[in-house]
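To illustrate the input format used throughout this study, we show a single complete record. The first block contains the structure-token representation of the backbone; no residue identities are included at this stage. The design step must infer an amino acid for every position from geometry alone.
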């Protein structure tokens, strides 16, 4: 080889290695930027419009015609395993009957269940007669018709019971939070109803009517809200979670009993899971074990909620119900400049348990926007060790904030910058989500913004079950 050819070869090799080094450096820089900026902040910008309440004369608030006609009809699960339903409704003129007539689609034989009614007063408001009736011993995976208002103006509805609890039972849940009763609220509910994925049960993460936003906690707004959601809640169970707008603690007007309107109106099967209060409880439904917690009840050591949860988590049999889902109102991981760190003390108390028992997903509301986290935990931090940054943890849940139902307080639009590494996707839009369980190992999750077509998935991911298939499902690992 001549000197010139050797020199040329060395020059070319040097250029090659320089380019390779530059490429590696640029790649590392790019990756570090991506990591430091967390996940994705959506480029979609919703047109900023003030959220406005629907007028009280809107058809969604219409009172059913006829004397003492039942209104505000809604159902929820009535036992621990999905073989019972709590039917609730209100009569305004007189108590009337608390009886429910019901029959299966394949039977003309009508059965009868007897309930009870209650009333309450709140400042200058007196409620109608609030009926609750539990229908038990139902067959799984069966369509039932039911009638309320026996003796006056009867109204007929229907529901379908879930399949028998089992590890590979598919089931589709809808997710809604912080709904309120604005035009945007109506869009959210309509969007959910028209979603072709067809949610079978709504997991509602708190903040229902926003009655406390009105003068003197106008409890008439509890009535209008319940009439508004009846079109869905009378036909499929809504699993209730209490939020801060359900507290209704107003000593300035003499109201010192927290959660009074909420607990009178929305009964849940808390005793079936050995809970001592209706604000925290659990149910099994299909292949899911759902734990509901109260962000606004005492949860420290020795409190009833703490003691219940400590005893409840070991009871979850992942060979029977592989999917472990937790509902709460105040999020633990939140990168918006609203309600920042309000859930921190609860996180400190319960996050080690969530990691130990491999909770699959935690749904929360409170922040009026959408956000999905990576699988992270911050359980190593003990104040003095300095390990205060959340780290990837494949035993940890994905945390999803779905407080974007459309309420009167509007969207949370201010985000912390840069986007933290624990945040996978965030967007300030109204919408709902679907959690579609396929079998014991896989579930498909999707979030749907109101401004898109019914089938559009603005954000989505495949969940791999933490007990049966605990692999990293983040896009960078696949």
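Output of the design step:
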């Amino acid at each position: 080889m001549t000197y010139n050819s050797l020199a040329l070869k060395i020059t070319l090799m040097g250029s090659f290695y320089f380019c390779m080094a530059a490429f590696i450096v640029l790649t590392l820089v790019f990756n570090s930027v991506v990591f430091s900026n967390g996940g994705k902040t959506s480029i979609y910008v919703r047109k900023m419009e003030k959220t406005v309440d629907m007028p009280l004369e809107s058809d969604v608030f219409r009172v059913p015609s006829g004397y003492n006609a039942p209104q505000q009809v809604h159902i929820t699960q009535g036992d621990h395993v999905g073989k019972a339903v709590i039917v609730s409704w209100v009569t305004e003129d007189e108590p009337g009957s608390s009886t429910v007539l019901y029959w299966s689609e394949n039977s003309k034989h009508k059965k009868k269940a007897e309930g009870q009614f209650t009333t309450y007063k709140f400042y200058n408001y007196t409620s109608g007669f609030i009926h609750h009736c539990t229908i038990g011993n139902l067959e799984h995976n069966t369509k039932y018709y039911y009638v309320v208002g026996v003796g006056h103006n009867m109204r007929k509805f229907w529901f379908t019971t879930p399949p028998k609890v089992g590890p590979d039972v598919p089931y589709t849940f809808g997710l809604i939070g912080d709904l309120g009763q604005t035009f945007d609220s109506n869009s959210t509910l309509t969007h959910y109803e028209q979603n072709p994925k067809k949610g079978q049960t709504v997991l509602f993460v708190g903040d229902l009517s926003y009655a406390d936003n009105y003068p003197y906690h106008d409890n008439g707004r509890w009535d209008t809200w319940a009439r508004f959601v009846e079109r869905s809640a009378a036909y499929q169970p809504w699993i209730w979670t209490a939020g801060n707008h359900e507290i209704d603690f107003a000593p300035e007007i003499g109201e010192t009993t927290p959660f009074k309107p909420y607990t009178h109106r929305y009964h849940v099967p808390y005793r079936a899971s050995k809970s001592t209060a209706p604000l925290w409880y659990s149910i099994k439904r299909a292949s899911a074990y759902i734990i509901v917690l109260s962000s606004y009840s005492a949860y420290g050591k020795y409190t009833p909620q703490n003691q219940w949860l400590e005893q409840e988590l070991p009871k979850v049999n992942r060979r029977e119900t592989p999917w472990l889902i937790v509902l709460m109102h105040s999020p633990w991981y939140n990168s918006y400049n609203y309600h920042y760190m309000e859930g921190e003390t609860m996180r400190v108390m319960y996050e080690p348990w969530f990691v130990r028992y491999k909770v699959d997903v935690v749904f929360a509301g409170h922040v009026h926007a959408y956000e999905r986290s990576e699988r992270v935990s911050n359980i190593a931090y003990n104040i003095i060790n300095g390990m205060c940054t959340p780290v990837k943890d494949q035993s940890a849940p994905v945390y999803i904030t779905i407080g974007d139902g459309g309420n009167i307080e509007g969207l949370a639009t201010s985000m912390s910058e840069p986007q933290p590494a624990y945040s996978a996707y965030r967007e300030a839009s109204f919408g709902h989500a679907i959690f579609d369980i396929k079998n014991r190992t896989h579930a498909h999750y999707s979030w749907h913004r109101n401004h898109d077509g019914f089938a559009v998935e603005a954000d989505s991911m495949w969940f791999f079950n933490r007990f049966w298939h605990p692999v990293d499902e983040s896009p960078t690992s696949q």
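Structural context for interpreting the output: Helices lie at 3-36, 183-194, 220-233, 260-265, 304-312, 344-356. Residues 167-206+279-464 form a domain with the Purple Acid Phosphatase; chain A, domain 2 fold (CATH 3.60.21.10).
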